[in-house]
Design goal:
Elements lengths: L2 H9 L6 H8 L4 E2 L2 E2 L3 H9 L16 E9 L5 E3 L3 E5 L2 H6 L6 H8 E7 L10 E5 L6 H20 L13 E5 L9 E5 L1 H8 L4
Parallel strand pairs: 3-6
Antiparallel strand pairs: 1-2, 3-4, 5-9, 6-7, 8-9
Helix pairs in contact: 2-3
Length: about 200
């Protein structure tokens, strides 16, 4: 199943409650009071008749599934709840590779984003709102991501890996990833304003 086929199939779930479907597909949401963080993605994988992939970002070859959460603000406006990890940062590879040939660009071209509405920590309900991909054909978006990547690249070349900080980047930020505050690994994350452009393109 390629990405376009997967997108069409996932679109069948838009407007449906993934929490209800979790029961239908036998996907565990909570076990011993601990939430299965990937449960929404597992529901979608079941709908696609694919084996559940335990990886946080299941990779199906030509495409990769990411699920993100949306939330309602007090004024009932729907927005993106948090940033989204894209791929780990390999400083040696980035130093040697421009954006056009970068692993980051390749990843962005593979990702399929399923956006669900988060209502509470109890996950009593979660409606699938949209399924889409990053639009790298939009020249403004493309140019900004390229600028963000080049900032990371130039920082690596001039100041080193430790100089990377989450304050960098407009659409894409380099941020610590891993268990504990002492983690030294970093990843590229899509910032909330970028995700909002992707999920709510008409706003």
């Amino acid at each position: 199943m390629n990405r376009d086929e997967a997108k069409r199939k996932i679109s069948e779930l838009i407007g449906k409650d993934l929490r209800v479907l979790a029961e239908t597909y036998g996907v565990t949401v909570f076990k011993d009071n601990k939430k299965n963080k990937g449960w929404a993605g597992h529901v979608i994988e079941r709908h696609l008749n694919l084996p559940i992939n335990s990886a946080q970002a299941p990779n199906f070859g030509s495409w990769e599934l990411k699920t993100i959460s949306l939330k309602y603000l007090k004024n009932r406006e729907l927005t993106v709840k948090e940033t989204m990890a894209i791929t780990m940062i390999d400083p040696v590879n980035i130093e040697r590779t421009d954006f056009l040939n970068s692993h980051l660009k390749n990843k962005l071209n593979k990702i399929l984003i399923a956006a669900r509405i988060w209502t509470s920590k109890n996950e009593d309900s979660s409606i699938l709102y949209a399924v889409t991909e990053f639009d790298l054909t939009d020249r403004i978006i493309y140019n900004q991501i390229e600028e963000d990547y080049n900032l990371v690249r130039q920082t690596l070349l001039s100041k080193g890996f430790e100089a990377l900080t989450g304050r960098m980047g407009i659409y894409i930020q380099p941020r610590t990833k891993g268990a504990g505050h002492g983690s030294t690994s970093r990843a590229f994350y899509a910032r909330v304003p970028f995700l909002k452009k992707v999920i709510f393109p008409n706003l």
